[in-house]
């Protein structure tokens, strides 16, 4: 787990800020801003979903004015390279909407969508040069569900190319189509692969954004940019219409500024009937297990011990019963890289429903001009093509990984209700198990770099996890 050491971090900072790459196919936002009052724009882009709906209900603003404010906010911060494209029909779509108490909370709300998620009215590129002109004919299932509830697709967010499964030497947040995404808080690692979604949420470019995660791709960039990121229970969110890495691990999820907004977006994406009980969300009596394994502490960075001490204090002050807990070490030894390679190759062909578009085509296209199209190489694409595994071998690896990771977590959950760590330090556990995790903002290192507090919950208890996260969010706000 050496991803977090000084050499890795310095390498990422060099790539992202000292020597950022820009390809010949990078898209630029040449759209014109709308004539919007600056005071109104500040008021709107600072609001959460409930506040925005109240503004519309009270006649202070229209849905069209809301989307114009966010459109302008995207253009205001376009040098962060968080957004690849804007929806040209956005305002027209918003003008057709009117407030009704019966509407879903997401009605009329603009959403930025990671650009590996299919949108029929906008290109879907995965950040890759070979897909610069690809425009799907239908929406991903989660996008259609949002549209059915009246949500508006503001545009497509940048990402680490191919959801960061192109090269082990990649730059977090870089894609040929979107360029290098920059951290919202300064010259810090932006995180990957849902970097654009996280930066956009942090800078108020949309009230809510959608990311996707295979292993840390929501939790890490959300942590790095001081926003809420939810990796749902595997299978809760439909993957239909999302360019895949691994069906065994992939899931889309919300990235927002508040826990309530994450819950509203999750509910709209999934048709969940369960709702959170915000009024009774409490930490009092909650049994919290702070993961104490050396496998986690080995990746602590400067000041992380101090941050975790503050987290324990905050939880205890809220009435939680906090203890250190060691997870079965076997859970940290799960290796699923071969699963990702195996399923990536099959998944891309299945997604495009064509034997004519495979990873072989991607590899060959990039080889035409690798310094331009693949400046950080494409070794994971090549390995996904060349390395061969039998179906039986992979089925057994998947079964074994899930069993080991779930046993490690379930054993821990016999004595605690929730597990806590920082950022994506325990990703291997919940990724292999398919369990939900949420990261919350609230702490920064002395440099100003954000670091998120991450809760890991029990299988299929996403709303309960959100309730506890909300209670902790309120505790942090009270202390501030």
Distance between the termini: 33 Å
What is the radius of gyration computed over CA atoms, rounded to a whole number of angstroms?
21 Å
Total of helices: 19
| CATH topology grouping of the domain at 9-277 | Amidase signature (AS) enzymes
Global morphology = globular
Query: How many distinct beta strands?
Result: 13
**Structural class computed from helices and strand pairing:** alpha/beta
CATH architecture of the domain at 9-277: Alpha-Beta Complex
DSSP strand (E) fraction?
5-15%
The low-pLDDT segments are none
The spatial strand order of the largest sheet comes to 1-3-2-6-8-7-12-13-11-9-10
The first-level CATH class name of the domain at 9-277? Alpha Beta
Give me the CATH superfamily of the domain at 9-277.
Amidase signature (AS) domain
Main sheet, how many strands, which sense, barrel? 11 strands, mixed
The helix fraction, in percent, is 25-40%
Instruction: Average the pLDDT over all residues and give the rounded result.
Output: 96
Report on this structure.
The chain is α/β, with parallel strands linked by helices. It has a domain at 9-277: Amidase signature (AS) enzymes. It contains 19 helices and 13 strands. The chain has helices at residues 6-18, 38-45, 49-57, 63-76, 90-95, 141-148, 161-164, 195-202, 219-224, 259-270, 294-297, 304-317, 337-352, 359-367, 370-373, 379-386, 391-412, 427-433, 462-479; strands at residues 83-86, 110-114, 152-157, 174-175, 179-180, 208-213, 228-231, 251-256, 287-291, 321-325, 418-422, 437-444, 450-456. The strands form two sheets. The chain has an eleven-stranded mixed sheet, with helices on both faces. A two-stranded antiparallel sheet has the order 4-5. α6 (141-148) links the parallel β2 and β3. The mean pLDDT is 96.
């Amino acid at each position: 787990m050496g991803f977090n050491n000084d050499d890795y971090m310095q390498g990422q900072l060099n790539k992202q800020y000292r020597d950022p790459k820009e390809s010949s196919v990078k898209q630029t936002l040449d759209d014109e801003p709308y004539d919007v009052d600056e005071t109104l724009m500040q008021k709107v882009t600072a609001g959460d979903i409930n506040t925005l709906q109240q503004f519309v209900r009270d006649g202070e603003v229209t849905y069209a004015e809301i989307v114009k404010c966010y459109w302008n906010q995207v253009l205001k911060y376009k040098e962060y390279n968080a957004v690849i494209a804007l929806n040209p029909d956005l305002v027209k779509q918003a003008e057709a909407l009117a407030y009704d108490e019966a509407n879903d909370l997401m009605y009329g709300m603009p959403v930025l969508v990671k650009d590996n998620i299919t949108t029929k009215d906008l290109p879907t590129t995965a950040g890759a040069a070979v897909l610069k002109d690809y425009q799907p004919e239908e929406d991903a299932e989660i996008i259609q569900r949002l549209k059915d509830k009246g949500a508006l697709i503001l545009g497509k967010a940048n990402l680490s190319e191919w959801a960061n499964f192109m090269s082990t030497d990649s730059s977090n947040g870089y894609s040929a189509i979107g360029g290098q995404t920059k951290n919202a808080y300064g010259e810090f690692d932006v995180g990957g692969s849902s970097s654009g979604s996280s930066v956009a949420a942090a800078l108020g470019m949309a009230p809510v954004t959608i990311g996707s995660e295979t292993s840390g791709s929501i939790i890490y960039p959300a942590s790095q940019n001081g926003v809420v990121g939810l990796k749902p229970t595997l299978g809760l969110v439909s993957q239909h219409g999302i360019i895949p890495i691994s069906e065994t691990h992939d899931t889309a999820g919300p990235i927002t500024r508040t826990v309530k907004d994450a819950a509203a977006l999750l509910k709209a994406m999934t048709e969940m009937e369960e709702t959170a009980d915000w009024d009774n969300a409490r930490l009092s009596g909650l049994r919290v297990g702070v993961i104490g394994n050396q496998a986690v502490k080995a990746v602590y960075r400067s000041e992380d011990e101090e941050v975790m001490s503050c987290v324990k204090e905050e939880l205890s002050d809220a009435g939680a019963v906090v203890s250190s807990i060691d997870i079965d070490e076997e859970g940290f030894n799960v290796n699923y890289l071969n699963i990702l390679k195996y399923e990536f190759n099959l998944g891309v062909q299945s997604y495009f429903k064509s034997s004519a578009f495979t990873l072989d085509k991607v590899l060959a296209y990039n080889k035409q001009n690798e310094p331009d199209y693949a400046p950080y190489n494409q070794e994971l694409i090549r390995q996904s093509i060349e390395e061969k595994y039998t179906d039986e071998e992979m089925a057994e690896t998947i079964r074994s990984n899930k069993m080991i990771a779930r046993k490690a977590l379930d054993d821990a959950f016999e004595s605690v209700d929730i597990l806590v760590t920082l950022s994506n330090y325990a990703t291997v556990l919940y990724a292999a198990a398919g369990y939900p995790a949420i990261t919350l903002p609230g702490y920064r290192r002395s440099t100003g770099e954000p670091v998120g507090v991450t809760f890991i919950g029990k299988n299929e208890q996403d709303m309960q996890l959100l309730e506890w996260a909300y209670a902790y969010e309120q505790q942090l706000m009270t202390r501030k």
